[in-house]
Amino acid sequence: MKKNNVVEIAILSVLGALVVLTLVIPQLLRERSESRLLALSVLLRDTDSTGLAVARQGMEQAADELGAELRFLTLTVRNDGREQAELLRREAEGGADALIALPADPQSLQEALDKLPRPLVTLEVPVQGGTGTVSPDNEAVGRLLARALLEDWDGGLILLLDSSGFCPEAALRLKGAFDALAQAEGEVPVLVLDYGYWDSLRGARWVMAFEPGATLQAAEWKQAEGETFALYGVGSSTAVTAQLEKGNIAAIAAWSDYAAGYLAVQQAVRAVGERPENLEPLPFSIVRGEDIYAPENQKLLFPVMSSSGR
Fold first, then answer.
1. CATH no., domain 138-254
2. Do 138-254 and 35-135+257-279 fall under one CATH topology?
3. Which of 29, 33, 237, 306 has the most CB within a 10 Å radius?
């Protein structure tokens, strides 16, 4: 009888231990998994993140796949380089494993990064000391967009909208376009205008813009004012694509914002593990209104969430 009691007690003890383990082990595994999440801070240069909606989808997909947690930070004043640098310092001191930024002022970010080294991946424009930049070849973007304009050009002044004051990468795209127009056969008259002086576009025949916001605003102003100039711009957002479809934009240079976001997070995670890769320029295409629904442009202009993110 005593032997049976001992056996029963032993069995109950084992069963009790198993019950405890079934309750404790999942919690331990969950805590362990959560502790492995990398903290990535994303520094934007605008006051909201609507302009990066598709890129954000790519970032979130990569973060989910690669075990990272994203924190998106916007500015109180658009394109305030000093505020963005202060955000970098705050996030670095707060324990961010790596940072991703769309730079408002590359110099200010570099100075902040020098004082608080962290892996920094940038979108569109490089920052010295950073871990890589996810961007197309900006000069090539301007150069090929200008060539698209020259295919249509039949004379008249070409106006280049300079938005580099709040969009550093626009300076390189403008340079690429200017060089291509200067090298064209025959004399091609070109004038560089500060972005935002819309009245200067009245009666124009040819206009180029070098970042998505400027492209969209120029197209909307053109439509509202009944102007007829041919507009060549940049971007692949739904709003820009809609203007292209309406005929308010003649052609755009477009690349995958989804892929850009995915690759930025991927590079940041790799940098934390001290194994970053050399990033190749993002491929881009020149898309005209009649080509919007071509198979090769469908995924570019109408991105769908995918498991690969690329």
1. 3.40.50.2300
2. yes
3. 237
Largest CA distance in the chain: 111
Domain boundaries, the chain: 35-135+257-279, 138-254
User: Whole-prediction pTM value?
Assistant: 0.83
Whether residue 119 contacts residue 260, with contact meaning beta carbons closer than 8 Å, is answered with no
Angle of CA points 113, 136, 272, to nearest 5°:
35
The amino acid present at 270, given as its one-letter code, is R
CA distances from 291 to 135, 139, 146, 225, 241 (A): 23, 23, 18, 26, 11
Query: Look-up: residue for tokens 């004051």?
Result: 165
Q: Compute the distance between CA of residue 213 and CA of residue 235 in angstroms, rounded to an integer.
A: 8
Q: What is the CATH number of domain 35-135+257-279?
A: 3.40.50.2300
**What CA–CA distances, in Å, run from 270 to 37, 67, 104, 145?**
13, 11, 24, 33
Examine the pLDDT at 157 and tell me if it is beyond 90: yes
3-class SS of residue 145:
helix
